[in-house]
Amino acid sequence: MISFFSNLLSANAELAITIVKIGLLLFIVLTVNAYLTWFERKVVAHMQSRWGPHRTGPHGLLQPLADGVKFLFKEDPTPAGVDKFVYYLAPLMALALALTAIALIPFGPDPIRLFGHDIYLGIAPPDVNIGILALFAITAMSVYGVALAGWSSNSKYPLLGGLRSSAQMISYELAMTMSVVGVLLMAGSFNLKKIIEAQAHHPEWGIAGWNIWPQLLGFFCFFVSAIAETNRVPFDLPEAESELVAGFHTEYASFKFAMFFIAEYTSMITVSCLCTIMFFGGWLSPFPASWTFAHYLPSAILIPFGLWVIWDGLRYETIFGRIILPGIGTAIAGLGAILVFLPGVNLFIQGPFWLLSKILVFLFIYVWMRGTLPRFRYDQLMAFGWKLLLPLSIVNVIATSFIILAKMTWWAK
Amino acid sequence: MTAPLIVFFVLAALAVIGAVSLIFQKHPIHSALSLIVVMIALAGLYLLLGAEFVAAVQIIVYGGAIMVLFVFVIMLLNAGVEEHTSISKMAGPAGLLLVIALAGLVAATIVRSTDSILGTMQTGEMSSPSGVSKTLGISNMIFKDFVYPFELTSFLILVAVLGATVLAQREKS
After folding, report:
1. Is some CB atom of chain A closer than 8 A to the CB atom of B137?
2. B52 and chain A: CB distance < 8 Å anywhere?
3. Which of B53, B69, B76 lies nearest to residue A170, judging by beta carbons?
4. What are the residue boundaries of the structural domains of chain B, listed by start?
5. Which is deepest, A56, A162, A390, B104, by most CB within 10 Å?
6. How many C-alpha atoms does A410 have within 13 Å on its Cβ side?
């Protein structure tokens, strides 16, 4: 029996590795999602001179867990008169598509060598030639979750939310797709890995070699329309609570509501990944390649942060916090110390470290905007998308093409 | 049975079931959803043939943009369950004849080209000749070999867009 399984495993090693990777990434993404809600509530609270969640666990760190349990155990009523099949399909579609998009993101440049197999960080193999197109295909489909939820609820506010959402997504998808053409022209490939590598043509340039400088206009168009695609503030008209109760998910309760919630936060992560990969050099370090001392930056951040958590935990008001927080702090500081003493691991961790840090910055910007910006009016939203973003992104495409053509004809000789 | 062949049959079955369901569903939204299933199954088939770019574009353009527009219009007009008039009931028998004709045509084509299909199945060569399916090959064809027809088509679409804009404009008093 055991030999049968080991034979099966060795015959389908790639398949087994992929399944393990899927499980692992699913766990990581869902956990990050949960703590993203905590992060958002904390940051917005501090922006508004409040404390945010602080009762459940030290600094409210167990709040996501409590929320999850609450979602699972709430009654899940199905309103009368809904289109049952579509009503159940909509949250499933939203969540499945959002999670599929994450599978296409490469999280690091080098594979780990384990049991004789090169294991890349990220589920899709790094040589997917249509990486960015496949991501856009998934984004293009993700409107259905929201639109169908609005329609199938058989209720006025959700229908209005669903209509707004489909109109908004059609309008902004155009600008979003056009705005990345500049990046694709510069990289000459749809492959996400090649897009990153194209930004490292001059290793000594560091941050100056990233796409953000020549593609500032493209980045502006992309980021704004991507926020609109994810239905976040200031483009959250499909769920404008002051006008539409809760918009498309008014009739959803319990875990079906949680599925929309997770889908929204997952697509926030995807958009942050895309911004990082296409415009901010992905896993590239912002420092020139010869600055090897910059490799100790992860440790230089982790060790003081861990020590601070220990110090903060020792004087925390509850006994539970005084036990848990120093433990977490020791783990963080220990991780930083390990990285100092294992140069091989430290070198490997550089790519994922920079990628994740940049993603975190973008997630913070998302939350920052939610804390500060007011919502657009609907006609402003449409005018902004069609009359400003789309022309700007087309100008960006034309300008980039001309410059690349000029370089090829005059300077390259 | 090789793995690509199994995937092919699953996708083909999905496409056929979706297409049949598209016709038999009573509600327009359900029909639109069935059509989306067909589009995605077709995209999967393209992927199986090694045409990555066409597969992605199939989902972006048909699965995404066009079908979202369909669903949007159905939702906006709040179209209900379809009604049968005396003329629409005639569509059944007339359609049956057309189905038989089409099935005969497809069968004839398959019978004629059985040898080549069996040949490709046995060698496992399910991908199309290289060059045409790859993104570079497609762009070379569109922007070098067929650049004038392509630009003419773009111009036609531009004219249609302008026409739609003019028609949708409110009359100025």
Report:
1. no
2. yes
3. B69
4. 1-82, 85-129, 134-173
5. A162
6. 6
Residue A370 near residue A37, CB atoms below 8 Å: no
The tokens of A340 are what?
């100092």
Length of chain B: 173
Is residue A289 within 8 A of residue A199, CB to CB? The reply is no
* CA-based nearest distance B62→chain A, Å: 10
Phi, psi torsion values for A139, nearest 5 degrees: -60, -40
ipTM for the complex shown: 0.78
| pTM to 2 decimal places | 0.84
- Residue B144 contacts residue B136 (beta carbons within 8 Å): no
* B18 Cβ neighbours under 8 A, 6+ residues apart: B34, B35, B36, B37, B38, B41
Mean per-residue pLDDT over chain B, rounded: 81
Sign of the torsion angle spanned by Cα atoms A86, A92, A97, A100: negative
3 state SS of A251? coil
Mutual orientation of helices A131-141 and A254-279 as an angle, nearest 10°?
Answer: 150
Pick the CATH number of B1-82 from 1.20.120.1200, 2.40.290.10, 1.10.1200.10, 3.30.450.20: 1.20.120.1200
pLDDT in tens, A337-363: 888 888 877 878 888 888 889 999 999
Choose from B35, B36, B52 for mutation: most chain A CBs within 10 A: B52
Rounded percentage of chain A residues whose pLDDT exceeds 90: 6
CB atoms near residue B17 (< 10 Å): 14
Written as one letter, the residue type at A323 is: I
CA distance B99 to chain A (A): 30
On whether the CB atoms of residues A89 and A151 are closer than 8 A, the answer is: no
pLDDT in tens, A32-59: 998 998 999 899 898 888 888 888 878 8
SS3 readout for B90-135 = HHHHHHHHHHHHHHHHHHHHHHHCHHHHHHHHHHCCCCCCCCCCCH
* Average pLDDT over every residue of B50-66: 84
Confidence band, pLDDT 50/70/90 cuts, at residue B155: very high
- Burial of A112 by CB count in 10 Å (0-12 exposed, 13-18 middle, 19+ buried)? exposed
**Chain A residues in contact with B65 (beta carbon < 8 A):** 140, 170, 173
A401 CA to chain B: closest CA distance, Å?
Answer: 14
Give me A164's structure tokens. 């707004």
DSSP of A296-336:
GHHHHHHHHHHHHHHHHHHT-SSHHHHHHHHHHHHHHHHHH
Which tokens sit at B110?
């398959």
Beta strands A117-119; A112-114: pairing state: antiparallel
